[in-house]
Amino acid sequence: MRKKITIKLVRSIKEYTEDLNKRIEEDKIDKPETGLIMTPETFAKVFSPERIKLLKRIHNNSITNIYQLAKELNKPYEVVFRNIKYFEGLKLISLKEKNHKKIPTAVNIEIDFFGNEKIEA
What we know:
Layout: E1 4-9, H1 13-25, E2 36-38, H2 40-46, H3 49-60, H4 66-73, H5 77-89, E3 93-98, E4 101-106, E5 108-113, E6 117-120
Parallel strand pairs: 1-2, 1-5
Antiparallel strand pairs: 3-4, 5-6
Helix pairs in contact: 4-5
């Protein structure tokens, strides 16, 4: 089973942090939430159409290595590798080494739109 990460979209990081601190002080939550917290503007920058295409490709198919993935996406290896490392830093992709090749694996992503509905990808 794949790991899952939740991306929570908030209108303002400052307001979210203030609300979170207030709930912690009032003992209304036991532990802080985990996952990624971002504004819609940040979300749009992080998840460009090209990056979404890359994530979907990794998530939907077995990738034998990054070179193969770059070739299939018709993108330079360096661009694909940089985006994979970026997503690895966000914990949305993990890299495993097999036969001296790096193999990316995507996690399941759940998006929480302002605390209302959740969409899984």
